[in-house]
Amino acid sequence: MVDFSLSPAQEALRAKARAFALQEVLPVAWDYDHQDQIPVAVLDKAFAAGLINTDLPAAYGGQGLGLLEAALIVEEMAAACPGIATGLFDNSLGAEPLALSTNDDAKARYLTQVTQHNKRVAFATSEPMMGSDVAGMRCKATPDGDGYRLNGTKYWITNGGIADFYTVFATTDPKARHKGICAFVIERDWEGVRVGQSIPKLGQRCSNTVGLKLTDVHVPKANILAEPGAGFVLAMQTFARTRPIIGAFAIGAMRSALDYALDYAKRRRAFGQVLAEHQAIQFKVAEMYQKIEASRLLVWQAAWQADQGQDPTVAASIAKFYASEVAIEVLNDALQIFGGYGYTRLYPIEKLLRDVRLLSIYEGTSEIQRMVVARHLFTAYTPIMPALDTLPMLVPPSPGARAGNAWRCKICGHIHYGDTSPEECPVCFFPSGAFVQVA
């Protein structure tokens, strides 16, 4: 049976996250956006309140909650500020390769520090010349005794400037593509690790993004999360679990944009009546709400699949690229309702629009998500309908035609009746080899 209701515990968690977002996140969002800084104090408060690291295993001090609970929390935080929400959730992204790895010793050493001592861990796959093409990374991992030595630059690292640890993906051979990729956990204060300046961005200015320079960084065997080849699989497994949450960021931002647009439409007058009485405005807000509701269902489905131990890869890609793209449409519509005021920094719409623009880029662009879904359709998807060659789409024989077997032309679909196929199709002129018997 399908059940879309939340449990009392999930309802309570969402209420707690909503209260935190309204009391702690919303009041500081525009100030920190203006400063282009991450509010570390808010992250500390969220840790104390038990609103981050919720999906990390209980065996290592986490709450052991599911991805659905994470989606509920993120939606509320993103409704207040998508940028701060990114900073809050990023510990889960950075820790996911650890949690998914088979290195139990590394899990015990690092995840317990994250869950019990408020240590931060960042995820490092991208590079200055490589983003969605994970297999194209060039950061080099050279065997060194029973460990490796890392050299190269990682880029676009969320929370990288405030992180204590990094889960780093590198390659033993760039030409080997995915077969050469391995994964490690390294520490910020290790020799050869250098953190770059904060990268200035259009939006998401309340989240910290930096580059990471690695120069002869020795990684001992105990810190290897995946050997060459297995690293690519680990990265993809990580994305399959974190991409639905990008959809939750989008939902939160869209929901707030709708709230603000409804409030403005009820107050603003034009052509002798309030905006809310104009059918054009009613159509806009109705479509905005439709996109929010559809996005939430897709995100919850993907999160549920992950929580059930199913492979959420395709559902996660659909949820991410649908929600992140309609978020831009919803924010554009909200800004249009506000008119000129929406274009100013005196109202909240322009910030939300700047923040959501990133969602269709990071953790795999929308184009990459389409490739994931298309690959599934052409390789693993099982159609319900019969193949065209065997489709029983028969038409009665033309008057005077001799009854017999039915033959379909595979090229144009023409149906021929007779004991044998015709020597030539009378419609497309292909020879008899183009016909298959269908009845």
Describe the protein in words:
This protein has 439 residues and is of the alpha+beta class. The protein folds into 3 domains: 8-119, Butyryl-Coa Dehydrogenase, subunit A, domain 1 (Orthogonal Bundle); 122-231, Butyryl-CoA Dehydrogenase, subunit A, domain 2; 235-379, Up-down Bundle (Butyryl-CoA Dehydrogenase, subunit A, domain 3). It contains 11 helices and 13 strands. The chain has helices at residues 8-25, 29-35, 40-48, 67-80, 82-100, 104-117, 230-267, 279-307, 313-338, 349-356, 366-379, and strands spanning 121-124, 140-144, 147-158, 165-171, 181-187, 193-195, 209-219, 224-226, 269-270, 273-274, 405-409, 415-418, 435-437. The strands form 4 sheets. It has a 4-stranded mixed β-sheet, covered by helices on one side. The protein has a 4-stranded antiparallel β-sheet with strand order 2-3-7-6, covered by helices on one side. A 3-stranded antiparallel β-sheet has the order 12-11-13, with no helix packed on it. Helix 4 (67-80) runs antiparallel to helix 5.
